[in-house]
Specification:
This protein has six helices and 15 strands. The chain is an alpha/beta fold. The longest helix is centred in the N-terminal third of the chain and has 15 residues.
């Protein structure tokens, strides 16, 4: 079985992280409705209960022994407050009653380690490696240790594809992006000879956002651009997949 296996129809995967089987998701963005209300004037009823129950259901369904969130557990850049704090606290309590919880720190997770660090494990911004799997949010360059993994998992991008039919209609769907990492790009960043890197030709897996309200990068639309500092230069190649497993091929030609 692959070290990282997406769950059909879900923005989530099962991964072998060391000796444990983990449920892995990215970009939960707890409290996003409050931000949409105050920043954009968009009134949406909170989906906090739906998000939590969906995560708990996936934990139960898969028999996962750990939850790993690839960054942006919360939405607010600074310390979580109000509705967001309440959602985070309820979610953290519910998850840790079942399994250990690891958060790969994202750019929206500023105060989470201080508020919930006694209950969840928070990795450094440049990631951590668990056995053959490296995890990080993706807003920073990965550490050399993460690059020594067989698979590197990130979030941050919220990858999506814009699909257009023969009569000009279009829709946007969340997607997975998978491809091999480029050794020379990371060696140059680390200022080392490429031959010195502990390199296992790792695959990059870019996770779709768990929160469907958080927008995304249309990876097949020219001019959209990537958010991660090592994309697209750090990819040798990349293929897009829909949540149902449909392989779309080279993400640049979808």
């Amino acid at each position: 079985m692959p070290a990282v296996e997406p769950l059909p129809g879900e923005p989530a995967a099962i991964a072998d992280v060391g000796s444990e089987r983990a449920l892995v998701v990215a970009d939960v963005h707890c409290g996003i409705e409050r931000a949409l209300r105050y920043e954009r004037g968009v009134e949406l009823e909170s989906n906090a209960d739906v998000r939590r129950e969906r995560l708990l259901s996936l934990l139960d369904r898969t028999g996962a022994e750990r939850l790993v969130v690839l960054g942006d557990l919360g939405h607010r850049i600074g310390d979580p407050k109000g509705d967001e704090f309440d959602e985070l606290e309820t979610l953290v309590d519910a998850v840790t009653d079942r399994v250990p919880f690891t958060l790969a720190k994202g750019n929206h997770d500023g105060g989470i380690a201080e508020m919930f660090g006694d209950r969840i494990e928070v990795t450094p911004a440049d990631g951590a490696r668990f056995g053959d799997v490296g995890v990080l949010h993706g807003h920073t360059w990965p550490s050399e240790d993460v690059l020594a993994a067989d698979v590197v998992c990130i979030g941050h991008e919220h990858p999506a594809v814009k699909l257009t039919d023969s009569v000009g209609g279009s829709r946007v769907e969340r997607a997975w992006l998978r491809g091999r990492l480029d050794r020379d790009t990371f060696a140059e960043r680390l200022d080392v000879d490429a031959a010195e890197l502990d390199w296992h030709d790792p695959e990059l897996v870019v996770f779709p956002a768990f929160n469907g309200r958080s927008g995304g990068t249309w990876i097949n639309v020219e001019g959209q651009g990537f958010l991660s500092p090592f994309l697209p230069a750090g990819l040798v190649d990349g293929e897009a997949y829909l949540l149902d497993g449909t392989r779309l091929g080279d993400y640049r030609r979808v």
